[in-house]
Amino acid sequence: MVGIRAIPETHRFCVECQFNYHVDATFFCPTCDKIVCGACAYRRHKKHRCEDLTSKEMETSCRVECQATRHSFNDYNKVHRGIQENLTHLVEKIEEFLLEKIDNVRMMEKFDEGMRENVACSDYRQFFKRTSKEYLQHARNFENKMHTFFKKLEGEQLQRGPVDDETPNDEEEEVANTQDD
Ligand SMILES: [Zn+2]
Ligand SMILES: [Zn+2]
C-alpha cells in the first residue's frame, strides 16, 4: 500500500478509489470530510457540495504562511524591544557611574591617580564610540533593508491591483532592482 509520504506534493490521494491524482483534479467533500477525485466526487458525493481542493488548499496554505511571517515580525519586535530597554538602562547606569567619577575628581590628591583616571576615561570613550558605531551601522543597514523590503511589498500590491490572477516572476525582478543602490 502506498503511504501518504510517497505521494508527490502536487498530488492527492483519493480515499474512495485509492489512487493519486493531481491536486487540480481533486475535490474536498465537506459532508464526508474527505478528499476525493473528480470521478468519485461525481459518483459518490454528487449531492454533497464538493469544493475545489486547489483553491481551498492554496487559501489555507497562504493564510498559514502569512500568519507565520507575521509571527516572525512580531517575535523580532519583542526581542528588539527587550534589547532596546536593556540598552537604555545600561547606558543610563554607565552615565551615572561617569557622573560619580566627575564628582570624585576634585577629591583626587595624587597626580598619578589623576593620570590613571584620565587614561581610563579616554579609553572608555574610545571603546563606546567604536562599539556604538558598529552597532548603529548594523542597525542603519537593517533599517535600509526593511525600508527597501517595505517598498517592494508596496510595489507588489500596486502591481497586483484588485484581482489577483497571475503574479509569477515579479519577485526576482524586484530583488534584482533593489540590489542596485
Ligand atoms: Zn477517486
Ligand atoms: Zn461526500
Automatic annotation (TrEMBL):
<feature type="compositionally biased region" description="Acidic residues">
    <location>
        <begin position="164"/>
        <end position="181"/>
    </location>
</feature>
<feature type="region of interest" description="Disordered">
    <location>
        <begin position="154"/>
        <end position="181"/>
    </location>
</feature>
<keyword id="KW-0479">Metal-binding</keyword>
<dbReference type="InterPro" id="IPR000315">
    <property type="entry name" value="Znf_B-box"/>
</dbReference>
<feature type="domain" description="B box-type">
    <location>
        <begin position="9"/>
        <end position="53"/>
    </location>
</feature>
<protein>
    <submittedName>
        <fullName>B box-type domain-containing protein</fullName>
    </submittedName>
</protein>
<keyword id="KW-0862">Zinc</keyword>
<dbReference type="GO" id="GO:0008270">
    <property type="term" value="F:zinc ion binding"/>
</dbReference>
<keyword id="KW-0863">Zinc-finger</keyword>
